[in-house]
Amino acid sequence: MWRKLGQFILRFRYIIIFILLAITAFAAYETSKVQISYDFSKAIPLNNPKYKIYQEFRKQFGEDGNLLVIGVQTNQFFQAAKFNAYSKLVSDLKKLPGVDDIISVNSAIDLKKDSATERLRAEQIFPEGTLSQELIDSSARRFMQLPFYRGLLYNPDSNAYLMGVRINKDVLSNKSRDGIVRNIRYMADSFGVANNLQIYQSGLPLIRTELSIRVKREMKMFILMSALLSAFWASRTLAPTLVPDFNICRAITYLCLLSSDSAYRIISNENPNVRSTIRLVSLFSCILIVLVIVNSVTAKLT
Fold first, then answer.
1. How do 119-124 and 199-202 pair as beta strands?
2. Nearest 5°: CA angle at 212, between 63 and 34?
3. 204-234 and 177-195 helices, crossing angle to 10°
4. Inter-residue contact 133 to 79 (CB < 8 Å)
5. Cα–Cα distances in Å, from 89 out to 47, 68, 96, 183?
6. In this structure, are residues 234 and 249 in contact, taking their beta carbons and an 8 Å threshold?
7. b/e per residue, 120-134, with b = 16+ CB within 10 A?
């Protein structure tokens, strides 16, 4: 059987080589069109009862996972300089493309009864623009008297104040979210530096963006190391090693592409066990590459 297989390969070797080159070229062309998926991967079956309940929840209450939270902790929040700077930060963030809405202390509203129409009327507690210390103090007292916002936008025990930035769900589903989240972080950090405040940021948009950037950076490094290894192998005597080196380089390229695509899909699950597994596999692959290089160098020197 093996003898016949060898004879078949030798007889049609040019056709087989042409087919392999065509498949490799087609794979390289299709790889150029691969894009990163920024959506959550479906980690459970679509017919799972819990998943169906979750989808019904999303239909009723809207998209989830698009809120980035910015927090500060200070007992001088309602001082004129800091509060006006905070209001300017909110105003600047609203101007960013992709930001749908912001909920914060200075955008809080109060419901008042309209005696003429017998209806409730929404009034903004803190007026827009630069406010005087007297106006801030009176508005702050009015704000603190509303129990609805306690524990939601502020914590009187720890002097912590929160801001929720709602990002458009379509923006979160493409690569432009990296720039949006980067701009939000930069503006928030700049506010903290200017006012000597520690800025705390969290939320799924931030976590998913940071993870995707980290994975892309690590995958680029892994592919670069594989390319350098392939170039090192190709730098040896070309004639007797052309076919083995070509096959090895092609196998490494396929493996890297498969690993990259799989990692991008798996990492969106935000599962720490999965991330740890990916890191271990990447570390093992890097160690294996280093060992192969050392072995090749040792063989050439001896």
1. unpaired
2. 95
3. 120
4. yes
5. 44, 14, 11, 12
6. yes
7. eeeeebbeeeebeee
Handedness of CA 73, 76, 82, 83 (dihedral sign): positive
| Res 42: pLDDT | 57
Q: At what angle do helices 204-234 and 272-301 cross, to 10 degrees?
A: 20
Q: Which amino acid is at 70?
A: I
Distance CA 262, CA 258 (A): 6
DSSP per position, 180-222: HHHHHHHHHHHHHHHHT--EEEESHHHHHHHHHHHHHHHHHHH
pLDDT in tens, 111-143: 887 777 778 888 889 988 888 999 999 999 999
CB atoms closer than 10 angstroms to residue 226: 19
For residue 190, CA distances in Å to 167, 180, 196, 197, 252 come to 20, 15, 10, 10, 44
Q: What is the number of other CB atoms lying within 10 angstroms of the CB of residue 45?
A: 7
The pLDDT of 183-187, averaged and rounded, is 92
Confidence class of residue 249 from pLDDT cuts 50, 70 and 90? low
List C-alpha distances in Å: 48 to 56, 108, 122, 160, 232: 13, 40, 43, 40, 50
Write down all domains in the chain, each with its CATH number in brackets.
66-202 (3.30.70), 210-302 (no CATH)
Question: Measured between alpha carbons, how far is 204 from 88 in angstroms, rounded to an integer?
Answer: 25
Pairing of strands 119-124, 109-114: antiparallel
